[in-house]
Write a structure and sequence with these properties.
- The protein is an alpha/beta fold.
- It folds into two domains: 7-101 and 288-307, NAD(P)-binding Rossmann-like Domain (Rossmann fold, 3-Layer(aba) Sandwich); 105-279, NAD(P)-binding Rossmann-like Domain (Rossmann fold), CATH 3.40.50.720.
- The protein is 29% helix and 16% strand.
- It has ten helices and twelve strands.
- It is elongated.
- It starts with 6 loop residues before the first strand and ends in a 14-residue tail after the last helix.
Length: 321
């Protein structure tokens, strides 16, 4: 029996070492032919003609159409709207994402946002610069209600940790089955109920036709005037002008935003200067070992791909995530 030739694989990112190491640890080196390119490099036509597997941040429109043998793309992010927008993403190409690889870091950063909103550490840091002794009373998290819109892998982990802090957690899920740590799970059609009850509204929804501009003026008005909006999902979930108006008019108390429709956030964007809005530079999922974590997922999926088995975190193109 003739052995199958190694599968041509392209690692298209600036630091491929963690992914090479993951493939080697999985014992798959002899079954693949690894090629690497930096982000600013263009793949030669000879490589495009042969590649069957690609791991990458993104691809320019028209590129995939020049890859006739491509069968699988491993995206390096959980969000894949950029990939799904490509007109040349053929139906026969399997797209998998990095969903679940932010399980530790993103929930910790979300909890950090909750503490930022309720504890006076930022104010104390400014007081220290002025050598000013100002005693402040912090708000409690215990007894408050956290509403999570999008109880996926990250949302469930946030719920587990928030419940341990004695927050009441409610939220929405496409299939409203019970979730550990969540007092009540609502279907998406009852989002308004969650908005009306929550002291903190956390956005973790994917971007779809239904969720783009989801937090509009109407939904912001459903929130308590003392409530805060926290967005660690996608920038496009928020109607920017509506949020600015809601914060300035005290319709809601404020917002912490880690994601934006345009990144980096333009220097002239009103979010920078709107009192009550905290801008974070998309730090939610950053982890010192992020590439190693995603590398393990990639190597697991590569073994499944080579064995003809179903892969993990496959994107449902109809749903958009």
């Amino acid at each position: 029996m003739t052995a199958r030739a190694p599968t041509p694989l392209l690692l298209w990112l600036n630091d491929p070492a963690p992914y090479r190491e993951a493939v080697e640890r999985a014992g798959l080196n002899d079954r693949v032919e690894i090629h690497t390119l930096g982000l600013g490099e263009a793949p030669p036509e000879t490589l495009l003609a042969r590649v069957e597997v690609m791991l990458a941040w993104r691809a320019a429109p028209g590129l995939l159409g020049r890859m006739p043998r491509l069968r699988w793309i491993q995206a390096l992010t959980a969000g894949v709207e950029g990939w799904l927008a490509l007109p040349d993403l053929a139906p026969g190409i399997t797209l998998t994402c990095a969903r679940g690889t932010h399980r530790i870091q993103m929930p910790e950063n979300i909890l950090g946002a909750l503490f930022h909103l309720t504890k006076p550490y930022a104010a104390a840091a400014f007081d220290q610069r002025a050598r000013r002794w100002t005693r402040r009373v912090s708000e409690t998290l215990a007894g408050k209600t956290l509403g999570i819109l999008g109880l996926g892998a990250i949302g469930r982990e946030v719920a587990r940790k928030a419940a341990a802090l004695e927050l009441t957690v409610i939220g929405t899920k496409r299939s409203p089955a019970p979730v550990p740590g969540v007092q009540k799970v609502y279907p998406p059609e009852q989002t308004d109920d969650v908005l009306a009850l929550a002291d903190f509204v956390l956005l973790l929804l994917p971007i779809t036709e239904e969720t783009r501009g989801f937090m509009s003026a109407r939904r912001l008005k459903m929130m308590k005037p003392t409530a805060y909006l926290i967005n660690f999902g996608r920038g496009e979930l928020v109607a920017d002008a509506d949020l600015i108006e809601a914060v300035q008019s005290r319709t809601i108390a404020g917002a912490v935003l880690d994601v934006f429709t345009t990144e980096p956030l333009p220097a002239d964007h009103p979010f920078w200067t709107t009192e009550g809005i905290t801008v974070l530079p998309h730090i939610g999922g950053l982890h010192p070992q992020r590439d190693h974590i995603v590398g393990r997922l990639f190597a697991d999926n590569l073994a499944r791909f080579l064995a003809g088995q179903p892969m993990l975190e496959t994107v449902d193109r109809r749903r958009g995530y």
